[in-house]
Design brief:
Distance between the termini: 41 Å
Oligomer: single chain
Number of helices: 7
Strand order of the largest sheet: 2-1-3-4-5
Order of helices and strands: EHEHEHEHEHEEEEEHEEEEEH
Helix content: 25-40%
Strand content: 25-35%
Structural class: alpha/beta
Length: 248
């Protein structure tokens, strides 16, 4: 967890850093702590911190300006104001602050806020992971001046002729110039190169013999050289699907 303290008072930086280190050790959280003395340093960083403890009253760009700029950039930083100025508490809501600590504060209060911030960080991290898992894998193809994202799962099979690949998908055919070797690397091990001119999605295989693979839509050739490898990979595919409780 990347944590940044932004305060123009170096003594306060040291105090907060010690409090963060003690609390993180206590709750078993690994963290990287950085300190800066101005809003310019925060905004000049190449990436957003996971958690930012931010003072409000600073020279040049104050804490509220920094917070608004972070939100304008859509940085998903957990923001905790640490300030002696209680009158800005309502402004903090406008920039989506997670908490507003007014100096001086008790150690226990700070620890509670940090623990809750860590919980929020873990929740967001899990949510982003779920989004990545749920998001379908796609490949990008270029047809003339138009680029299109094609869901890998929608490709039944692909064939190549004269450097032009035809993607036979569940919703129709798409043609573009490319190499079947590169396409095979992009789509992953759910596909098999059955022939120098064919790449099939194992998900859509219905039956096969030593020369032909019939799919839900269409059919693909299988070469004598590739047949044994195809059968082996298809059996592994079925085994994995069966273990998951679903066989196509």
């Amino acid at each position: 967890m990347k944590i940044v303290i932004c305060d123009d008072d170096s003594k306060m930086q040291e105090i907060l850093q010690n409090k963060i280190e003690r609390t993180c050790r206590k709750i078993g959280v690994e963290c990287q702590i950085g300190c800066c003395s101005s809003g310019e340093e925060v905004l000049g960083a190449p990436q957003a911190p996971d958690l930012l403890f931010l003072d409000i009253q600073m020279p040049e760009k104050d804490g509220m300006y920094v917070a608004r700029e972070l939100r304008r950039r859509q940085w998903d930083t957990i923001l905790v104001f640490v300030t002696a100025m209680s009158e800005y508490v309502y402004d903090a809501f406008d920039v989506g602050a997670f908490h507003y600590l007014v100096k001086p504060f008790e150690d226990e209060k700070f620890s509670q806020v940090l623990k809750k911030a860590v919980e929020e960080y873990e929740r967001r991290k899990a949510s982003r992971k779920d989004e990545r898992v749920q998001q379908p894998k796609t490949i990008l193809i270029r047809q003339g001046s138009i680029s299109s994202a094609v869901p890998v799962d929608s490709i039944v099979y692909a064939e190549v002729f004269n450097r032009k690949i035809t993607l036979h998908t569940v919703s129709g055919d798409l043609e573009y110039y490319g190499k079947l070797t590169e396409l095979s690397q992009q789509v992953g091990d759910g596909f098999y190169r059955t022939h120098r001119a064919y790449l099939v999605n194992l998900k859509y295989v219905e039956r096969y013999d030593a020369t032909t693979i019939w799919l839900e839509q269409g059919a693909a050739l299988v070469s004598k050289k590739q047949f044994a490898g195809f059968v082996k990979q298809y059996m592994r595919y079925i085994s994995r699907r069966g273990a998951a409780g679903w066989i196509r």
